[in-house]
Structures are given as structure tokens and as C-alpha cells.
Amino acid sequence: MINEILERGLFDFYDQIDTWQEAINKSCKKLIEKNIVDETYPKQIIETCEKYGPYIVLIPQVAMPHCQECAQGVNETAVAFMRVEKPVVFDEDDRDKDAKIFFTVASEDNKKHLENIAALSDILCDEEIVEALCEAKNEEDLRKISKKYNI
């Protein structure tokens, strides 16, 4: 999965992002640039988070922005990666909801959506991989992680 993200250029690194809404917008930036999703997709994710809370933060430090509920504006299936040096705060009262790494999932249909989530779950179950991704500073680091863990 990381290898595909690298091949498609679907990754970004930031020092700091001030709000979770801005983080979602930035996590969709490469997907929008490559016409994988349109500008409505991050708005849908933000609206869904406002409705249900930070459901996209799966484990501490890891968010998976996605929206299947009435999701429109998805042209193809892809996953983008974003890493932020200073954790993004989703809930001031629950700092376990802070996130440094974002895997933004865009899926054309529910079957592909579930396949991507399953593949990401395999990666995120490995604490060593998560820790390495949280420490990645650039494309070279991401390539080393992809090669070391064969992901």
C-alpha cells in the first residue's frame, strides 16, 4: 500500500496544521490535484466528523479520513498519506484523538472501501510500523519504511 502511495505521488509532509478541518483539507490535497476526488470530498468528511465526532481517528496518532455516507465526488479508488510533525488535535478533552499520520481513503464503491480499510488495518495493527510512520520526515523515509516492512 505504501509503495502504491509513493508510486502515485499521494503523500505530503507538514510541520504543523492548526485545525483538524484544515488537516482534512490538506490530507485530500494530492487526491484533488490528481482528480481522484473533487473539492466536495473533504467537505463531506468534515461534515461527517462534525455530525459523528472524530470517528476517523482509529488509534492514537492515526487518522483515516474517509466518507462513505452519501460520498460523492470520488472518481477512482486511492489512498493518500500525510504526516504532520505536531499532532493535530481533534478533541481537546480527549488527547488520544490527536493524529500525526493520515491515511485518506477514497473509494468508488463499498467493496473497494472495505478492501482498503482491511489493508490499512493490517498495517496499523503493527505498532513498529505505526511508530516508523509517525517518525517519517520525507519521501526517502517513507520509501525505507515501505521497503523494510514490504508495505
- Cα-to-Cα separation, first versus last residue: 5 Å
Question: How large a portion of the residues is in β-strands, by DSSP E?
Answer: 15-25%
Question: How many beta strands in the DSSP annotation?
Answer: 5
**What quaternary form is this?**
single chain
- Which residues form runs of ≥5 with pLDDT under 50? none
Largest sheet: spatial strand order: 1-4-5-3-2
Helix-strand string: HEHHHEEEEHHH
Rounded to an integer, what's the Rg over CA atoms? 14 Å
The rough form would be described as: globular
Class by SSE composition? alpha/beta
Mean pLDDT comes to 94
Word description of this protein:
- By secondary structure, this protein is an alpha/beta fold.
- The protein is 45% helix and 19% strand.
- The protein has seven helices and five strands; from the N terminus they run αβαααββββααα.
- It has helices at residues 2-8, 20-27, 29-33, 40-52, 110-124, 127-135, 139-149; strands at residues 11-14, 57-59, 61-63, 78-88, 99-106.
- It has a five-stranded mixed β-sheet with strand order 1-4-5-3-2, with helices on both faces.
- The longest helix is centred in the C-terminal third of the chain and has 15 residues, at 110-124.
- It is globular.
- The mean pLDDT is 94.
